Amino acid sequence: MCHSADIGELPGQVKTAALVGVPKLVIFDCDGVLVQSEEITLSVLIAMLNALAQRETMLDVTRFIEHFRGRKIADCLREAEQLLNVSLDDKFEQHFRQQALEALTHSLKATEGMIEVLEGLTVPYCVASSAPRNKIEHCLRMTGLLPYFEGRIFSCYELGRWKPDPLVFLTACDTYGVDVSDAVVVEDSVTGIQAAVAAHISVIGFGPAHRHSQLAAAGAVPISDIRQLLAIFN
What we know:
8 strands; Beta-PGM-like; metal-binding; PGP-like_dom2; Rossmann fold; magnesium
């Protein structure tokens, strides 16, 4: 289905090597793809962790936003306990999720051009995320995207396996009756890209230019503007 080619430039962007051919299903990640939530929620998490840390062990915000991006929060917390030499109880994650939802409510925005993409796609699409369903729905509701994804949401929490495990992507393909060779995943994290590669699904890596080498090394075709999808698929 997919071959390598150049697509046209968008204003202020370089020409990008991209996948061409119309897929039968587009699977979007939520955080960092549909909505710009990763920096918001992970900034909250790192601030809460640093409040418990000694000065010499405090986490660098920029570095650990990238390090934790796309990963299961429980795994991030277990790693943070070792890095900071602290013990986190169950209430910490609950408190974090409450603060993160409040921050998202005040600051969350849909990715620029996302509604244009959703209205321009001529093939089925869905969202497959490592986040809990209530967070996915909250993010989509706050940004006006929920009507586009009602009945099209797949959460790792409901499957009991998280990216980079490919199950959430395989479940989406199975639900839509689409072979993995006819699907495309759009991801912003190395963890998510690894899940798509493990599922043998072509993957597009969405992120700013300075992350393109990281996304490409993980196995994705990088793009900087979500509207490039319309040029790739149509």
